[in-house]
Amino acid sequence: MIVGVPKEIKNNEYRVGLTPPSVRELTSRRHRVLVQKNAGLDIGLPDEQYVAAGATIVDTAQEIFGKADMIVKVKEPQPGECAMLNQGQILYTYLHLAPDPEQTAALVRSGAVCIAYETITGAGGGLPLLAPMSEVAGRMAIQAGAAHLEKSKGGMGLLLGGVPGVAAGHIVIIGAGVVGTNALQMAVGTGARVTVLDKNMDRLRHLDLIFGNRISTQYSNAHAIEEAVLSADLVIGGVLLPGAAAPKLVTRAMIARMKQGAVVVDVAIDQGGCFETSRATTHADPTFILDGVVHYCVANMPGAVARTSTFALNNATIGHAVALAEKGWQQAMRDDPHLRNGLNVCQGKLTYQAVAEALDYAYVPAESMLG
C-alpha cells in the first residue's frame, strides 16, 4: 500500500501524522510511504530522518493525495484537503464531525473511507487514540487558564495558589474522564482549591481515594454545576460523549453571573464545546471575552506542544495504521470491531450513529460496508 503523510495546514498545527519510527514500521513491511517536504521539520523531524526510515519525500500535498491509498493525518482535513480526497481512498485522522456539517458534507461527497481516531475503541474500554491528546489537553488546560488569569491577558489578576495571607483561587473541573483527571493532577499542584464534578460515582470515589481532602468531589447536575461555576475563578470543561456533540452544561446565563475576569477553558470545543458561549479559537488568537469572562477555546490545544503530542499520538495510532496497510480497510475492520468503530464516513454513507443523528443523515451500520 502507498501511505501518504501531508504537512498539516490548520492554524499553528505542527504535529505530523507519522514519525520516522512509525514510517519504519510500515516500510519494513514493504509499504511505500510518501511524506510531504518539511512535514515534521518544525518539531525537530527533518526530511533526512524520514528518508533514513524509508520514506520518499514529495513536494506537494497534491502529489500525496493523488498517489496515496491511505492518508494519515492529525487534524481534520481542511476544505482544500477534502477536495483532494479520492473515491475509496482511506483517510485516517481525527475528524470530530458532529459539530461540523461542512466537513461532513465534503467527506460524503469525496467517496473516501474516513476513519476517526476519536471513535476507535479499546479492548479494555475507553478511546485509546483520543486518550493521549486528552491527557495533553487536560494538563495544558490548567497552564492556559493560569496564564489567562493574569491581568495583562484579560483575567482578574489572580495567582491560583495564592501566597501566605492571601486565599488561593478556585478551580472547577467539569468531567472526570481522561481530560478531567489530567487537569485535576495539574490543578492540585497549583495549590488552588479544586472541585471536580461528574455523574460517575465510582469515578468520584476513586479520585477521592487518591487525592483525599486536597479536592472536593460533587455529583454533576444543573444545580451543582451552577453553584460551582459561580464561585470559580477558573472552569475547565472536559465532558465527552463519544462521537457526538458535547452537551451544553454551562449556560449563557451562568457565564453572565460569573466573576469578572474569571477564565473558562473549553477542552470539549472539538465536539462543539460544553459552554453555551463557546466558539472555536486558534493558537494565534486563543481567547475572547464575553460578559467579562475570558474564554479559551483553542480547537487543537495539543498542537502547542506538538513534538510531545506527535510521539504520544503515534504510539496509539501506528498499530491500526499497520493493520489497514497490511489487510486493507475491509478485512482490518472485519478482524477488529474496535477499529470498525472508527469508521465515520464510508463511500458517501454516514456509518457512525451519533454523527448521523447529530447532523440528520441516514445512518448506515459500518458492518454493512464490509462486503
UniProtKB/TrEMBL annotation:
Pfam families xref list: AlaDh_PNT_C (PF01262), AlaDh_PNT_N (PF05222)
Enzyme class: oxidoreductase
Residue numbers annotated as active site: 96 (proton donor/acceptor), 270 (proton donor/acceptor)
A single GO molecular function term of this UniProt record: nucleotide binding
Binding site for substrate: 15, 75
Ranges for domain Alanine dehydrogenase/pyridine nucleotide transhydrogenase N-terminal: 4-137
GO cellular component terms listed in the entry, alphabetical order: plasma membrane
Catalysed reaction, written as an equation: L-alanine + NAD(+) + H2O = pyruvate + NH4(+) + NADH + H(+)
UniProt KW keywords: NAD, Nucleotide-binding, Oxidoreductase
Domain of life of the organism encoding this protein: Bacteria
Keyword NAD: yes
GO process terms (BP): L-alanine catabolic process
Alphabetized SMART domains for the sequence: AlaDh_PNT_C (SM01002), AlaDh_PNT_N (SM01003)
The Alanine dehydrogenase/pyridine nucleotide transhydrogenase NAD(H)-binding domain, residue ranges: 149-297
EC number, UniProt record: 1.4.1.1
Residues binding NAD(+), per UniProt: 134, 198, 203, 220, 239-240, 267-270, 279, 298-301
Record bears the keyword Translocase: no
Gene3D superfamilies hit by this protein: NAD(P)-binding Rossmann-like Domain
Family stated for the protein in its record: Belongs to the AlaDH/PNT family.
Protein known as: Alanine dehydrogenase
Organism: Massilia psychrophila
Lineage summary: Bacteria, Pseudomonadati, Pseudomonadota, Betaproteobacteria, Burkholderiales
